[in-house]
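User: These chains co-purify. Model them together.
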Amino acid sequence: MNGPRVDVRFRANGRDAVVRVHPMARLLDVLRQELGLTGTKEGCGEGECGACSVIVDGELVNSCLVPVLRADGASIVTIEGLSQDATELHAVQQAFLTHGGAQCGICTPGMVLAAVTLLERHPDPTDAEIRSGLAGNLCRCTGYMRIFEAVLQARRNRDASRPAP
Amino acid sequence: MRAYLPDYDLRAPDTLGDALAILSRASGAWRPFAGGTDLMVLLEAGKLPEGRYLGLWKLAELRGIEERADAIVLGALTTYTDVLRHAALQRDYPLLCRAAEETGGVATQNRGTIGGNIANGSPAADTPPALLAYDAELELVSTRGTRRIGYDRFHLGYKKMDLAPDELIARIILPKRAATWTQYYRKVGTRRAQAISKVCLAATVDVDRSAGLVRDVRIALGSVAPVPLRATRAEAALRGVTPDAAALANAQRALIDDIKPIDDLRSTARYRLHVAQSLVAECLEAV
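Assistant: Joint model of the two components:
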C-alpha cells in the first residue's frame, strides 16, 4: 500500500498553516519537523509522560497520540504561542521560573501547558486538583513540589494583577 | 521499530451514514479509529496493523450523553472527560466516574472514548468492570440496521468481540437503578495513579436492610481473565443470603471458578486471585 499524503490545515499559535503530510503522521512530528515548533518535546511516545502536551481547541492533548488529520481545522497552542507578547512570559511560565519549577526542561513545556489548562478549568485549585490535573505530566528532576508551588504562585500572580473590585 | 507511514491510510467521514457505507462496501478493509489513545501507541511501537483506518471523530451522531426515563445513554465517542463533567453520571454512576478518573491523565481523558475502551478489547481496561456492574447494553449499528446486546455477552475471548467488521458501537445504555443499590469500585495497580491494573473490581449490591439480606448483586472484574467479566458464581453465592463471614467465604471460593488469572508482566495469577478475593471482602464490608 502507498497511502497518499493529504493537505491538512490548522491554526498554530494564531497563524494559519497548511502541511502536506501522511494523515497518520503524529501531530508531534508535524509540529516539530514541518513547522519548526521544537518547544514541544517527545518523551515516551506512548501517551504516558505528557512532554508532548499541546492545547488543541482549548483541550490538553498528547500530540504523540494525535494523527495529524485529526488536527484539520483545529486551533493549536504550543509553548511558543503561550505568551501573547514576545517580550513577556505568560504568568505560569514566570511562576515556574521564579519557583525553580524546571530543571532539565524536557517536561517543562508540557507541564506549563497542563498547568495553564488546569487553571482555566479550576481557577482556584486545591492540592488534589493540581495533582490530578498534572498527573499525566511526568518530571524526573524536581520531585514536583516546586512545580505545585509554581502553579499556586501563578494563581496568586493572576489575582494580584487583577484590578481591585 | 517505528511504523512506516505510507503503509497507512486514514480518512475521517463527516457523517455516520458515510462511515457505515465505507465499512459495508469493503468489509474488513477499514478499521475504526476513535480517540487514538491506544492505536497511536501501537503505531509508534510499529505494532499497528498496516492498512486503512476510519477516523470517527467527526461523527456527531456518536456523541452526547442523553438522559432517558429508564436509562442514561452514552454516545460511543463520549470521552472520559465528558463522563467526569456530567452531573447525572457523577450522581448515579460513580463507578464509571471512578473508572474514568483512573484512566490515564487529563490529556488521555480528553481524547480516549468509552466506545474505544470497549472495542480495544483489553482485559485490563478500567471502564468495562463498571459497565458490567451496571448491566450495560450496547447498541451496534451498520448499514444492515441496529441491534442491541447485553454488554456481558459482547466480549467473546481475548480481543474477540461480537462486533462484525461493518459494525460500529453506537451507544452504551446504562439502565437506571433504584437508590437502594450500593456501589463499590477498586483498581489495584503498581501505583495509585497512571498505572495499568493488576486487578480491578466493580460491584453493585442491593441490600434489604430490614431483612439483612443481599437481594441482588453484580460483581465484575478486569485483568483476571482474557476478557472483563461478571463473577456470576460469586454473585450466586451472595444472592438471597446474609452477607456474613460464611457467605463471604462461599463467594471467595466460588470466585476461583469465575476467573482465570495469569502470570504476566504486571502480576502473577496467585496475587491476582488473592487480591480479587480480598476486594470481594472489602466490597461486602463497604455495603
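Strands of chain A lie at 6-12, 15-21, 53-56, 59-62, 75-77.
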